[in-house]
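Supplementary notes for students who missed Thursday's class. We covered one full example, reproduced here. Read the sequence, then the structure, then the short commentary at the end.
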Amino acid sequence: MKQAGAGRGEVRHTRVVVIGAGFAGLGMAAGLTRAGHDDFIVLEKAGDVGGTWRENTYPGCECDVPSALYSYSFEQQAWGGVRASQPEILSYLRRVSVKYGLRDKIEFGVEVERGHWDEVDGRWHLFTTTGREFVAQYLVVGTGALHLPKVPKTPGAASFGGPAFHSARWDHSVDLAGKRVAVIGTGASAIQMVPEIAAVAGSVQLYQRTPPWVLPRREAGRLARTVGRAPLLRRLVRSLTYWNAELLAVGLNRRPALTRPMEWRAKRHLRRQVPDPALRAKLTPDYRIGCKRILRSDNYLPALTRPGTELIVDPIAEITPAGIVTEDGTKRAADVIVYATGFRVAGSLARLPLVGRDGVSLQELWQRDGIRAHLGISVSGLPNAFFLTGPNTGLGHNSVVFMIEAQVSYALRAMNLVDREGANALDVRPEVQAAFHDDLHVRLADGVWSTGGCRSWYVDARGVNHSIWPGFSWQYWLRTRRVDRGGHELLKPPQDSLSGQ
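Structure (token representation):
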């Protein structure tokens, strides 16, 4: 394990630079190690591994994907229940980083500020915020999509007199006991934290723009622990859970009407947990299930029926030093504000300034052509760069870890292709990328995210879905099993060999 300490002007050469040490970055590092590659570096801006599971420490934080699917296939984990908690997941990632010797490859406290592809030496040159330079043949961006908190620009927000923070930047120095706590947002993090907050706070104001569809959590802790102790049974349960989840893709992508039984089940869950018809009406979605992320909880809805908990559906007009004012003129005093407002997902990868061939940056490419990447991994004009959890590789029905592993395997195959061909780099042809992009969005047009009647983080402000893979995850796995030689331009080695660097 290395800590940042080198001075400005140092140049470090390596074959592969991986940015980020969350699920994606560690998965890539483990893939390189397991394939016998030793010449790589992982750059992590924080002081530990974990990514989103290091940064999100709010009360009740857990994964909403079945835990049977939420580990690497090569290092399957025995979780304590059907939903893995944040401390469990962070501990797992730390253990993986130690078991596979990855910590020795990670430089912590190193934030990449910018990078460019040098067409003369055929290498990526990356520069950190402290002025260090890393030179690599291959660049793998594994920073993920859920790392840039989104806080709404509300008039007067800066004037609030008490603590105010995003759920991904939880301030553990703030004691919520007996406090008047305002929670803004009703997405996945709010579903998990509101019951925990309501149990200790003096009162809770929950500001809801759109009610989520909430299904029962389906906890089976004893069974999960039994499965965890039996590796063969664990693999079987993982397989069954995976294929059961894949069934949902039919309704989400092709036949949204097939999800109606899930809506009936969610409404029954709501009726059982919220007896007040007026409150129940506020909590009933008016859009097709799956249009926004489907959530599971057994204690969120009951928390909203507690004395002292108020669900507010009037839009927020402003924030004052004393609290929040809604558009109907009601003023509510608050001691603490928690923003459970999600992340800046669309285009998050483009926030890292990367300049490719002919001096054209990733931002310029995406501004000109729209956010697009072949298989969500490669961008034409950026040779030897691979994006993990890139555009349109998210899922609404299964585990992103499955997608990450497919992307890691694809990147390794691409590197092997370059070696076999005696080349120095490969760059996906623009017409291949364009054909993939056009087909992708034709298929997205029939999905519930386009037709379900809601606004969600899956879709940007212009109504374009840059987040979701429109199909089965096994179809994505098949697409990434090989690198199309004819679909790529193979670039020759530079004239002056950089061997030995």
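Commentary. The chain has 14 helices and 21 strands. The mean pLDDT is 91. If anything here is unclear, bring it to office hours.
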